[in-house]
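Protein Entry — a single chain follows
Fields — amino acid sequence, structure tokens
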Amino acid sequence: MRVLLSSTSGAGHLGPLIPFAHALRRAGHETLVTAPVSAQARVERAGLPFMSFADPPERELGPLWARVGAATPEEANDIVLGELFGGLRARAALPGVELAIDAWRPHVVVRESCEFASAVAAEARGIPAARVGIGLAAMEERALRTAAKGVDELRGWAGLAPDPAGDRLAGAPYLTLVPETLEVPGGPAEALRFRAAPAPWQAVRAPGERPLVYMSFGSVAPTMGFYPGLYRAVIDALAELPIRLVVTVGDAADPAELGPLPAHVRAERWIPQAEMLTVADAVVGHGGFGTTLGALLAGVPQAVVPLFADQPYNARRIAELGAGLAVDAQDPAAVGAAVARLLEEPAFGMAAGRVALEAQALPSIDAAPAVLEALVLDAAEPLAA
């Protein structure tokens, strides 16, 4: 079986697809990732075959991001979901996605839930498709419905029937790595839930060794004006604690811009997150899906400093579960007090551990290829009849 996996450029969008790609390869299936040119380094780092499509031109992205910066959080979400993912990115992606499908002829398309061009291209060619969640189910539903108007324009270009409410998009099988406990109660989407891998072994600190705190605000924040100012303010707050601090800033930022750092602070562009979660005693993140879920599934408590998109919702949910604390980005000095609590009060780690245990009871991600195989068979049966 040939499987095309399609993503937008952000690490938080591509990241959830990668475990499914590796599970498919372990099951003997061929995979190809198609994503914007700007995602090439991330795909290659994951060791997966890659075929690029276009990013939107900067002359279109610049004015959109300017509007996002001037909007309220709710307005900003509507702009990003509806006009960026449902509009600019989908339109830029469609020709390249169509080329990848026509050249490689996959049996099934698997997309991350904000990459919409592949859903249109697959349906126009009668190829079954599934989606992989990149957040909580409630936000997945909002993204789908908000983007539906822009996606409907693409459907018209492809000769498909109108779908103004996004019902066709919602009908695709929905795969996720989110344990049900993490979801907002009463969430709308039915999900096929999997665990990506066994929980990482937590290294035991040597006697007298300071706790290690891992700080990451993802790959997008540095491009949105938060770097280096917010990073340095949080580092300064944390540097007063008796800890070791490791900071990653992403491929788009230069650690040197942070200035001289204390001896117990280390800054890098990128370190494998799974590696850090085996040794971290606490995590400081921005509420992005990859970091938030990764820390939770490793049983590591976290201080969440939400910046944009779904991050305030993720931060709120972590706090509701008792697995961490939410901190206002306008008060970076408060991060130090939050991390001190995480390290001193075992209840936070215990709450994260309970969610991690629930996740470990989910079906292995190695069961996901069978779901896609069945999807391909179901699509072939009408043709055989």
User: Anything to note?
Assistant: Residues 212-360 form a domain with the Rossmann fold fold (CATH 3.40.50.2000). Residues 73-104 form the longest helix (32 residues).
